[in-house]
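User: Some background: our group keeps a shared notebook of sequences we're curious about, and every so often someone picks one and asks for a predicted structure to add to the entry. Today it's my turn. The entry only has the sequence so far, pasted here. Could you supply the structure so I can complete it?
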Amino acid sequence: MNDWHSAEEVLEYAVSRGLVPGDAPLEAEALSGGVSGEVWKVSGPQGACVLKRALAKLKVEADWFSDVRRVEREQEAMALLSPLLPVGRIPRVLDYDADGYAFAMSCAPEGSESWKDRLMQGQFDADIAGRVGLLLRTMHEASRGIGEAEKARMADLTFFRELRIEPFYAAVAIRYPKLSGRICALADELTEETPDVRKCVVHGDFSPKNILIDPDGAPVLLDFEVCHWGNPVYDLAFCIGHLVLKGLQLGREADAYALVEAFCAAYGEAPARLLPHLGLMLLARVDGKSPVSYIRNEQTKERIRSLAYPLIREELSGEPLAAIATMLQGGHKK
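Assistant: Of course. Here's the predicted structure to add to the notebook entry:
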């Protein structure tokens, strides 16, 4: 397998796969937004597509490796979920190169924007958050009814362990030995082989970075490589954690809470174990193997830690939204 070191190599690959004609003017543009793969947009007179290739070593400072065969899981998950979701909510798989650990997919509608970019620009739109919450609800509820063969194909947790349990839960447990028992128990809640724990298709990377907002305000979901048959609480904690972090970074706590409220209202009843997993997500994004790039101020990091500790220790109880409101109002300290 050869990496794509230049636009010329990407175009040569796209032509070799029959995705674009070799005798037409073509352009290749590297896309940003991820640490686990190379992503390029290839455009020509007949249209455009996106190429993605998995990397063995992820693009972070820490040594973080994952099996490149996860690209097979990604395109399988997209094919599985496509008929379960409204048209246009996920890209279509156009080509799969098993030997090259790469695949091609359709582009999002022209004019689509990254939800993360919009949030970082201060666009805290509760309507968008509600649409995203409804999309997640639809994915979770619709996937509960898939057949046993489909469940079996999504049951292997290798990639979820490599890309989520190890860099988030395990890495943070090592850094915080006094919390390690609780953190390991939380990890077990995501991986136990019981029907009451693993009961729907979980995206595993449900964050604003992986959600585009099309010109009509509808979300388009990307990046399915850690998709698995699992515990839905993970997706909620992962996404809500990102919304909280952006509110804290930008000093927009009240607006962040409005997003969380709209997201949860559209999703429906929150899983009972949301709060401790949310605490772990917050702590992992400053002290795990994949810290968010936009939080550099040590005072902000300390505030996040002080909010995460009581959630992990389960000192905040009751209805999740009320607890999150209390947390964002600064009601808990280390």
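Suggested note for the entry: Strands lie at 27-30, 37-44, 47-54, 93-97, 102-105, 113-114, 200-202, 211-213, 219-221, 228-230. The longest helix spans residues 126-143.
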